[in-house]
Each structure stands twice: as C-alpha cells, then as structure tokens.
Design a protein that fits this description.
By secondary structure, this protein is α+β, with helices and mostly antiparallel strands. The protein is built from one helix and five strands; from the N terminus they run E-E-E-H-E-E.
Length: 77
C-alpha cells in the first residue's frame, strides 16, 4: 500500500515561505509569498498520488489542510 506524503508550508526566516516534507528539515522550495508556496506544495502533493499539504500561519499554528489522491484506508469521518 502506498503511503501518503505530508508536506508543510511554513514561514522561512524573517520573510518568505518554505515547503518541507514531514520528517525532514530540508526545504523543497523557498519563495517570497505564501501563495507561491501553497501552489508549489499543492502541485507536488498531487504528483505524489497520495499527498497532504498542511498550511501553517505565520505563528506556526495550522491554518488549513488539503488531501489529494484516493486514500486506500476506509476510515469513516
């Protein structure tokens, strides 16, 4: 069974936003706007087949989550 990858959009340093893969500190991309980071993360999550994009606010709390692909698990709710 394929595993879902989880990507995070988080603030980067003083200005900018980064996309990282869960469990890794390495940036997949660093851009100047949150919107560009979300677009990049969304595209990458969709390419993976089973992907999740977690978007954070500037303070680090979770703002939104997007799930892509058909989840092979049948969990209600």
């Amino acid at each position: 069974m394929a595993e879902r990858i989880q990507l995070h959009v988080t603030p980067w340093k003083e200005n900018g936003w980064q996309v990282t893969r869960a469990g890794s500190d390495e940036q997949l991309v660093v851009v100047d706007t949150k919107e560009k980071a979300i677009d990049y993360g969304r595209d990458l999550a969709k390419q993976e087949g089973l992907g999740q994009l977690v978007v954070h606010k500037a303070d680090g709390t979770i703002e939104d989550e997007f799930t892509y692909g058909e989840d092979p698990r049948s969990i209600p709710g």
